[in-house]
Amino acid sequence: MFKAELTRIEILRKSFDLIYKNGYQATSIDEILATTKVTKGAFYYHFKSREEMGMALISDVMHKELWPAVKKSISTTKDFRKNLYKMLRNLLIEHPVLTCEYGCPSVNLIQEMAPLHEHFRKALKKNLSEWQKVIEEEIVRAQSAGQLSADHDSQNIALYVITLYHGARNMGKVLGKAYYMTFLGEFDNYLHSLK
Amino acid sequence: MFKAELTRIEILRKSFDLIYKNGYQATSIDEILATTKVTKGAFYYHFKSREEMGMALISDVMHKELWPAVKKSISTTKDFRKNLYKMLRNLLIEHPVLTCEYGCPSVNLIQEMAPLHEHFRKALKKNLSEWQKVIEEEIVRAQSAGQLSADHDSQNIALYVITLYHGARNMGKVLGKAYYMTFLGEFDNYLHSLK
DNA sequence: ACATTTCCATACCGATTAGTATGGCGCAAA
DNA sequence: TTTGCGCCATACTAATCGGTATGGAAATGT
Lengths: 195, 195
Prior knowledge:
Chain A has helices spanning 3-22, 29-34, 40-46, 50-72, 80-94, 105-113, 118-144, 154-175, 178-193. Chain A is 74% helix and 0% strand. Chain A binds a DNA duplex through residues 1, 3-4, 7, 28-30, 38-46, 49-50.
């Protein structure tokens, strides 16, 4: 009941690493086992299939470990523009695990798996909704504080900001880290265009 | 010198279909052969490896067939806002081949392959640069015509627009086609915020 | 007519894949 | 002490992978 949980986590962590760098479909179980001390018997004791492990990865690792970092990246100054800007900046530039080269695990998985597995799509959508919700609250707060016109649809803006992040993660893979800076510049322009 | 070119194209077209829907790494040569009348001997006569076929796919199919559609999607009215809006709208909504579910082949390949194969990254970057260039010209034209302040950096805006497209393609996979409309609404707001 | 090259078909290879079958170790309850 | 269960190790399978070897039909040049 204790040691077992450790091996389960070891499997998920290594899987996360490999899938983050090589993609879900390109990461084999044997490769995971080869780079850990876990054997195949242990793997199939904890997960009844490869797909179930993928689902556990989304809900356990990505949701429970990565998501808090996202939430923490949101400052709470009075200026909502500053808060949203810093949020994206923290995620793009300062994140301790994510790199420009390999992008964002969530974005990657959406791109690769959303059309192929409905379970995956729904699980990833759930992650997305939580982020969206937090951004929405920040928008609404700004509107209540008179920093932003109430005409704006908070949901639309929230989704738009997330869309920008997803796009930047994709473009960064081609253009390199330098692009993150020019992107953030334009993002700042956008935020200040919101009246 | 004639029939041979046909089989080459048949290979590339079917490869494009499968890779577009399932991803590059998940598409096997055997699967391509199974769904065409092409044999393995023919395949390896035209391409010395799987990777070379992938490169040919980027330069031949995507560049020579998809790219003209992109270029055609750009209207040439006087209003640059209208032109850019319609460009994204055409690509997202009206494109005859691309679907919301499977996204954009270029975006997909960038996400999957840019970190893994430097050749791929460069070839995809080249595609991107052409699109960027066309958008830049539209921005510059608008600036010369006094529709837009010369303070704006045309390159940054062009990349920003492409970033938005990439993000929308990604988000669409999770949220479905309906999101394209709300996205386009926010994109329109952005365009009109450019003074 | 013959020779040569282009283009493709078939059979095969070793490596790798997801998944299974089975056995055993350690520990707690009886 | 024995029984049972949680946890894992080893060995295996059938299928599939990218790639090769080889032979031959069809077109082409001489």
